[in-house]
Amino acid sequence: MTIIDLTTFAEHSQKLPSRLLAPLEKREKFPTVKLLIAHGADIFSTMIMLSIISSCLMHSLNLIIISKGLDNFSDKTALRFILQILPFFVFNYFFFCYFMNSGQSYGMFLMKKRIHMKSKSFVSAFKWASRSTILCFSFGFSHFIEKKIWSDFQAHDHLYHELISHHEDYTVDVLSRGQESKKAATEEEIWSKAA
C-alpha cells in the first residue's frame, strides 16, 4: 500500500487522484521456467505412455510370429517405431489436452497454469498444440524466438474457480412445499363441497 500525504490535497481542496487510490498491481514476470517445466513433464509423460504402448505392441508381435526366420522385431525396430511416431503422438496429446481441458495439459495442471484460449475451439487447440509440439522438440528454443505468443500462458487457480466462485443453489425447501400441497388439498376439498 502506498502512503499518501493528505495534507497537501486538503490544503488546496483537491481530490485524490485515482491512480493513488487504486490497489497496486503485482506484475508477475513471465514464468519461462514454469512453461519449460510443464512442457518437460508433458513430454516425459508422453514418452512413458508411448514406450509402454510400443513395448506391448512389440511383445505381442513377437508372440504372434512363430517362425524364427520372421523374427525381425528387435529392440532397434521398437526404437525406430517410437522415434517415427513420437511427433504425431506428442501433437495428439497436446491437441486433446487443450481441446478437452480448455487449454491445460497435465504438466500445466502441475504448475497451476493454463493457456488462455476459447473453450472447445478446434482451430485454437490445433494452433497451440503445434506450438507446444515445436517447443518440446526444439528443447525450449522456440519460446525465445516467439516470446509474445506465449503471453497467453497464465496462472489458473483451481480452488477459486471450483470452490469459491458463485454456484446456484438448487436446494428444495420441503416444509414450504408441504404447506403448499396441504393448502392445495384444502382448496380442493372446499371446491368439492361447494359442488
Strand content: under 5%
**End-to-end CA span:** 76 Å
**Strand line-up in the sheet with most strands:** 1-2
Helix content: 55-70%
Short description:
The protein is 64% helix and 3% strand. It has 195 residues and is mainly α.
Overview of the molecule:
With 195 residues, the chain is mostly helical. 64% of the residues lie in helices and 3% in strands. The chain is built from 9 helices and 2 strands; from the N terminus they run αααααβααβαα. The chain has a two-stranded antiparallel sheet with strand order 1-2. It is flat, with a radius of gyration of 31 Å. The model has no long low-confidence stretch (mean pLDDT 79).
Keywords for this entry:
two-stranded antiparallel ribbon; 195 residues; 2 strands; mainly alpha; single chain
Strand and helix map with partners:
Layout: H1 6-11, H2 18-21, H3 32-64, H4 75-100, H5 106-111, E1 113-115, H6 122-137, H7 141-145, E2 153-155, H8 158-164, H9 174-194
Antiparallel strand pairs: 1-2
